[in-house]
Write a structure and sequence with these properties.
single chain; 2 domains; 6-stranded parallel beta sheet; 3-stranded antiparallel beta sheet; 18 helices; CoA-Trfase_III_dom_1_sf; plasmid; Putative acyl-CoA transferase/carnitine dehydratase; CoA-Trfase_III_dom3_sf; CoA-transferase_III_domain
């Protein structure tokens, strides 16, 4: 039994941020029932030629482990059935623009009447309240609004768009808030409405830069530099497009690195003798380190530096992660069977629990409406005739 076994979530989320929240909870054992419709499929479910395949890879990433039912939420009977589903759930999760669920007749006040202790989780770009709550948004805008984009990139270039990392950060924050709300319900018996604003998640990650700004200190884009450490950054290797990440944190490490690159005299150079001097003259370090690394095989260079106590590693591509024996040994990379029998690699939950209740993915991406016999029949107790009638009437569609 996984940690959240017994928890049920009615999942009305779409795209990436909200679905990643429920995906994380599903890996810890929650039964997540994704509500969809053929009238307007989740944009990520639609096949699109990305990542060298025609299948919806972005949808697979956030939908494994879930169950799927079809519901037309613009049909009165579809809304009624959605309420019945919420009535047997612990959590109702949604990620529409603020106010959409209320207009559908599924706002928090209504769902609370359906199930008094329901926890409703709403993920949106700007939150459910405030003068900009109606604003639409997607991952790059979250980072732009929240200040992360402005800080990302090189000093002589534009801000960098924050993509999947932004959606997933929002989803992880939403998952944490959901668990907090459930713990509160266990303590008080009361449900609540959890309001997650993606742009606020981005701002929460700005951290010390926001503190600096409040003190009147302007911090700009630093590329791969660190505020204190030097050398610190990515250096070329003899392997095509394989970059070596190096971070030196002390004078002792610098002396070791200077010896490894065949430039021991640099350890005593006044420009580099102390951490403060190295940081001030960090651009002058790029050439000698880069000249050495460019003649080295990436993996071998990283192993040598690590053996000498210097933090270093290749900047890995996804293909490296999939093939990594360490990740495989920990169950972080799993082989998942899809409904059509296709085997694909997937990233498991990053947490580990002692015992046999470890989080993880146990089934592939559900087919649209593939779990309606269980959800509508076994769970909600509808007869086959009643389900057939709702399908005929396009309430289930």
């Amino acid at each position: 039994m996984k940690p959240l076994t017994g928890l049920r979530i009615a999942d009305f989320t779409v795209h990436a941020a909200g679905p990643f929240c429920t995906h994380m909870l599903s890996q810890m054992g929650a039964e997540v029932i994704k509500v969809e419709t053929a009238l307007r499929p989740d944009i990520f479910r639609k096949p699109h030629a990305v990542y060298g395949r025609q299948g919806p890879a972005t949808f697979d990433q956030v939908s494994s482990n879930k169950l799927s039912v079809r519901l037309n939420l613009k049909h009165p009977e579809g809304v009624a059935l959605a309420k019945k589903l919420v009535g047997v759930a612990d959590v109702a999760a949604e990620s529409f623009r603020a106010g959409v669920m209320a207009r559908l007749g599924l706002g928090y006040d209504i769902l609370r009447d359906v199930k008094r202790d329901i926890v409703m989780v709403s993920v949106s770009s700007s939150g459910q309240t405030g003068p900009e709550s109606h604003f639409a948004g997607y991952a790059p805008l979250f980072g732009a609004w929240g200040g992360l984009g402005y800080l990302s990139g090189h000093a002589d270039g534009p801000p960098v768009e924050m993509r999947h990392v932004m959606d997933h950060s929002v989803g992880m924050h939403a998952a944490l808030a959901t668990l907090a709300a459930l713990n509160r319900r266990r303590r008080t018996g009361e449900g609540c409405h959890v309001d997650i604003a993606a742009r606020e998640v981005a701002s929460s990650l700005v951290g010390d830069f926001l503190t600096a700004a409040s003190a009147g200190v302007s911090v700009g884009r630093m590329g791969n530099d660190d505020m204190v450490r030097a050398p610190h950054g990515l250096f070329p290797t003899a392997d095509a497009d394989r970059w070596l990440s190096i971070s030196v944190s002390s004078d002792a490490e610098w002396k070791v690195l200077a010896g490894i690159i065949g430039q021991p005299q640099l350890a005593d150079d006044p420009r580099f003798a102390t951490q403060a001097e190295r940081h001030a003259n960090r651009r002058a370090l790029d050439a000698p380190i880069g000249a050495w690394s460019a003649g080295q095989g990436g993996e071998a260079a990283a192993e040598r530096l690590q053996a000498e106590g210097i933090a270093a590693h290749l900047s890995w591509a996804a293909s490296d992660i999939v093939a990594d024996p360490h990740m495989r040994a920990r169950g972080a990379i799993l082989d998942i069977a899809e409904t059509d029998g296709t085997i694909r690699a997937a990233i498991g939950h990053p947490a580990r629990f002692a015992g046999d209740d470890a989080p993880g993915i146990t089934r592939g991406t559900p087919a649209l409406g593939g779990d309606e016999d269980y959800v509508y029949g076994e769970l909600l107790g509808l007869s086959r005739a009643r389900i057939g009638a709702l399908v005929e009437d396009e309430a289930i569609y």
